[in-house]
Amino acid sequence: MAVKTDIEIAREAKKKPIMEIGAKLGIPSEHLLPYGHDKAKVGQEFIKSLSGKPDGKLILVTAINPTPAGEGKTTTTVGLGDGLNRIGKKAVVCIREASLGPNFGMKGGAAGGGYAQVVPMEEMNLHFTGDFHAITSAHNLLSAMIDNHIYWGNDLDIDERRIVWRRVMDMNDRALRDIVVSLGGVSNGFPRQTGFDITVASEVMAILCLSNDLADLQKRLGDIVIGYTRAKTPVYCRDIKADGAMTVLLKDAMQPNLVQTLENNPAFVHGGPFANIAHGCNSVIATKTALKLGEYVVTEAGFGADLGAEKFFDIKCRKAGLKPAAAVIVATVRAMKMNGGVAKADLGAENVDAVKNGCPNLGRHIGNVKGFGVPVVVAINHFFSDTDAEIAAVKAYVAEQGAEAILCKHWALGSAGIEELAHKVVSLAESGASNFAPLYPDEMPLFQKLETIAKRIYHADGVIADKSIRDQLKAWEAAGYGHLPICVAKTQYSFTTDPTQRGAPTGHTVPVREVRLSAGAGFVVAICGEVMTMPGLPRVPSAEVIRLNDMGNVEGLF
């Protein structure tokens, strides 16, 4: 029997009207702004009315380092949400929105897979409710106003060589990484070098995802440092007088999006910073709203636990005052074999020794997450090619690490295939075993925070950074930014900054290429190794096979 594709399964979904999904959470229809019949935004006034309600329990789903074999973190997040509802818990899923760049590049969609998906799948992976377009527009409005200010006399004495605000677009386009603007003569302004980042790396994206409400959003936008004067003093977005208009552009984007799973359970899909170049979590406002409406909230953090989970704990939870009750680490037998040295083409053959050799990557993530004081369970996301012996090897290894691994078949069976994990998560969450604490205190110096992440999470020997980078961090400390957390931008494929180094390597160092202050978002970005804040397309991008079929349906999204 042919296996149906994700998009075929999604197209067959028996969706309920979004007002019914809202009613399951107690959201009156007048507080839902519908986008068609199957998605809606939740109004700010309703969200404010929830402030006195108790919070549900927050469950983080994270993973091992991603491999070409596939892990299925979002699929497991959605499956677990359905599984908790299946066993009688009122659970809500919270995930990020998809970026167009990877959808047309090589990653594919971000709505789960198989029978553990959020729908409508096509819209979620394309324009959805327009949030990313609003973020792109707000970001580039500030860019235009900076250059316009300089054109009309530069009253703020901005040093054009020290403008740090780049432009963004939600597409992978390496040609725009480094460009010169304002060529063509006097009427076009003053030529200068700049560049584009992808929208998910925008500080505006991070700000929207960390803001509590519209007032907080505008204050954070105003705090953005856009550059420096000739006297080397910072120039803020509020000095350019762009914060008000940016907030207007983001007014609707700030409202969380409500959709549903294939099993008609509620899901918030809001915000979408990448975890390799940004902080990798869905919005604080969506998570906090879900916690007021559900007994359990299942959320994910991007890529492996070394990036996504660390930033979820050290940035999102720290800033938002969240306390996760338990964490799920997703792994697959196939990925263990790849970490154990098996080529992708050979993953179908049983190889228990390779599974055992690859397990230290999982073991390191288990230890790291436990280091935050959060109880851990491992979800083995099942593939048809997995053998009993290979599954047993993973379970035995995880038991040696003081945790439990549970086989999950939600991709093929939906919530029925993940009941055991749902019961285990409830057991961990209800036990009160979580003693969450961030990795480092606010008052620790910035470079020491970076070293702490490198040594404790990446298990590196240390950090390599030029004197100019160390001096920049000290200058930011002197300017009052020393309390901010660190957001590391590095490859997602390895604990090191070398994407080819799988497993659990030691004896490596973390080279820091550049640091950027995100004063509005409230963190300092350390760009390490060769990671790019504007990705490129692969040799054969997914866009080549995405098209409309004769029925007018989208084909090629996955």
What is the correct CATH architecture of the largest domain?
3-Layer(aba) Sandwich
Write down the overall geometry.
globular
CATH fold name of the largest domain: Rossmann fold
Based on secondary structure, the structural category is alpha/beta
> What fraction strand?
15-25%
Q: What is the CATH superfamily label of the largest domain?
A: P-loop containing nucleotide triphosphate hydrolases
Head-to-tail CA distance between termini:
20 Å
Mean pLDDT over the residues: 95
Taking all Cα atoms into account, the compactness measure Rg is: 23 Å
Largest sheet entry: 12 strands, mixed
Show unreliable segments: none
The number of distinct helices, counting runs of at least 4 residues, comes to 20
Overall structural domain count: 3
Percentage of residues in helical conformation: 25-40%
Structure description:
- The protein has 20 helices and 25 strands.
- The protein is globular, with a radius of gyration of 23 Å.
- The model has no long low-confidence stretch (mean pLDDT 95).
- With 558 residues, it is α/β, with parallel strands linked by helices.
- Helix content is 36%, strand content 19%.
- It has three domains: 6-129 and 253-430, P-loop containing nucleotide triphosphate hydrolases (Rossmann fold, 3-Layer(aba) Sandwich), CATH 3.40.50.300; 132-241, Domain 2, N(10)-formyltetrahydrofolate synthetase (2-Layer Sandwich); 446-528, Formyltetrahydrofolate synthetase, domain 3.
- The strands form six sheets. Strands 1, 2, 3, 4, 5, 6, 14, 15, 16, 17, 18 and 19 form a twelve-stranded mixed sheet that branches.
- Helix 4 (73-86) packs across helix 18 (419-430), helix 7 crosses helix 8 and helix 15 (352-370) packs parallel to helix 16 (388-400).
- Strand 22 (509-518) and strand 23 (523-528) form a beta hairpin.
